[in-house]
Amino acid sequence: MIGKSHHSQNIHVSELPVVFRRAIIEDAPVLTELMHSAIRGDAAAEYSESELQGWLTRLSEEGVRLKIESSALFEVGEIDGEVVALGALGATPDEIDLVYVSPNHARKGIGSTIMRRLEAISREKGVRLLWLDASRNAIPMYAKHGFAKSSSSGPKPGRECLCTRMAKPLS
User: Fold this and answer.
1) CA distances from residue 156 to 72, 97, 160 in whole angstroms, order as listed
2) Contact 41/52 with Cβ under 8 angstroms?
3) pLDDT in tens, 137-163
4) Which residues have CB under 8 Å from 133's CB, separation 6+?
5) Which pLDDT score, from 0 to 100, does residue 97 have?
6) Angular region, 152: left φ>0, alpha ψ -120 to 50, beta rest
7) What 3-state class would DSSP assign to 112?
8) Segments in 4-157 forming alpha helices (H)
9) What is the Cα–Cα distance from 92 to 131, expressed in whole angstroms?
10) I want to staple 93 with a disulfide (CB 3.0 to 4.6 A). Which of 14, 29, 72, 171 is the partner?
11) Can you tell me the mean pLDDT for 101-118?
């Protein structure tokens, strides 16, 4: 994990005072809830009920704890002490693993801020090609940030029907 400090940084996103900080294990229940809420809200129109159930099942509280421990970077965004977003790199800084925003705060620039933060950390770590597996509903947001569908092999095992591999060269 890149540093385990829990310092926070205030950033105003679309006039919202979002405070970003490193995720801690105790955040797992609230982060799991946020991801489930975002999936039910934003992705529901793009996936069948069985696909949604499979996705939700894979995002367990224990799984979130493991991601917090193993991620190169895992941050949460808070407004007035309420967790409203999260972003995480994979085990190495060349993969964006998670970007979720609460449906109540979606489309206010928070997800874009998370993307810029994750990209900056990856760039600082010397990453030349950043990749991610995008859900169908998130492809437009990632494309807006310069990611393109990749010609590399498909998504991670267990997510074949859910994701599209995308990549972005970093300079």
Assistant:
1) 18, 11, 7
2) no
3) 889 999 999 999 985 554 455 554 568
4) 155, 156, 159, 162, 163, 164, 165, 166
5) 93
6) beta
7) helix
8) 28-38, 49-58, 61-70, 110-124, 139-144
9) 11
10) 72
11) 91
Bin 146: left if φ > 0, else alpha if -120 < ψ < 50, else beta: left
Q: Tokens representing 142?
A: 């990632």
Q: What is the mean pLDDT of residues 67-84?
A: 94
What backbone phi and psi angles, to 5 degrees, belong to 76? -120, 150
Name the token pair of 126. Answer: 């010397």
- Measured CA to CA in angstroms, residue 139 lies from 35, 43, 79, 163, 167 at distances of 17, 11, 26, 9, 11
> What pairs with residue 10 in β-bridges?
19
Residue 7: per-residue pLDDT: 46
Q: Name which of 41, 36, 46, 11 is nearest 120 in CA terms.
A: 11
Q: Is the pLDDT of residue 2 over 70?
A: no
Matching residue, tokens 């005072």 = 17
Chain position carrying tokens 């939700």:
56
